[in-house]
Amino acid sequence: MKTRRWMAALLAVLLTLSLGGCGKETVGKGSGEASGDNTIALLAPDDFAGKLHQYTKPDQHYSLAETEAGYYFVSYGMLYFIDRDTQKVSLVCAKPDCDHMQDNVCNARLNGTALHGGEEISYVRDIFENTVERKTVRAVEPDGTAQREVQELKANNSIGYERTIYHRGYVYYISEGVLYRVKYGGAKDSAEVLWTPANTGEDQVQGNYTLVGAYSVQYALWAEEDTLYFMVNLPREDGTTRDTLFACDLQDLSVQQVWETPSADEVGAWETTGVSASQWYISDGTIYFYLAGNGLWKTDLSTGKTEKLADTGDQIPYGSAVYSDDTVCIVNDIPKFWETSEKVYPGSPWRYDADALFVYGMDGTFRKEISLQPLFDALGQVSTIELVLTDGQNAYFVTTAMTYSTQDGFPIGNKGDKTLCRADLETGEVSPLYTLL
Ligand SMILES: [Zn+2]
Questions:
Q1: What is the CA(53)–ligand 1 centre distance, in A?
Q2: How far is the CA of 122 from the centre of ligand 1 (A)?
Q3: What was the pLDDT predicted at 66?
Q4: CB crowding 395-412: b at 16 or more within 10 Å, else e
Q5: Same domain for 422 and 321
Q6: In what helix (H) or strand (E) does residue 3 lie, and over which residues does it extend?
Q7: What is the domain extent for residue 269?
Q8: What share of the chain in percent tops pLDDT 70?
């Protein structure tokens, strides 16, 4: 029951946010030009560990797939494409005369998450049909001409934001706190159990919500070569939860713990309760992680050796990061729960007050500080800036500019206009690219 209430609260928040973007003129229609000649070249189709996927914030609203031509990404259930060469952004719907507002009509309207760049562009939709939850993998034509169902997944009171991933012919997903894998396109009942959290009995209070039993374990999935990594927030004896990383050997399906967020006494003055890395990224068996207020770190997962790469605390007291294979971008935003809760959730998507982007190399070298002031000049009162991805040349992020309507001087409503923006990491130029629906 509590879980339902929690989900309802989350849905209410998401609905509010997505409604904030409604009722706006569509800026351009998606068309076949999204993918040029209608063929699509997926990068590294056998390996999920595409450079640009971030599974650092499971409650973040953006999912990504990379192709040679550019990036597909989902924002609040809508599918967009960013052309890598021209930086042109389009909504991926090629239906003539579509106003992009209707479910089951508009091809860009996925109402799902977890975009996969596997054998094809696919995503996961998790909806209730006649009170029965139905979780499916659906494929989209990259030119926005059609969608179809690929397979159904086990679903039982799943938490919607738990991301699935695709890796080497399999879909990895979570249902009722259990980690499964199933062949892409395979039957629902052929799914194999990879891992079940042992300690699922306790309720946990997280922020304003109580999570019940198995649902309290949040996963973030990552795959590289023959290893599936999964980060879970396991409860500790002191009442906190701590991010703990497991590695599943995809040859024999054995699982072992390989990392956990270091505590403050291991890494120095990290005041954010030591529970959760703000952001992390795995490359060649090394986990790179950002501890808000306390720098950039890495741990070699085979030796367990942890190293500090850069101090960021003085310049960036709090922040959110995105990684690529050679670049880390951090915006200096502040989690909104900071003032209202004893705990700070570094990965909280509810953040504000960012005004600059800081660029580092993977080795911790500071490269550049980029002011975001031009965006405020162009877009008005920007309240939040959410990083979507960096590819080393550019950083992409979504800004929300709030406009408040008043009556007799009293606020009666607000509307959030979301804009996809880009920072050129070489020149430092920042610019709005596209007004999102
Ligand atoms: Zn449409």
A1: 25
A2: 17
A3: 83
A4: bbbbbbbeeeeeeeeeee
A5: yes
A6: helix 2-19
A7: 261-437
A8: 73
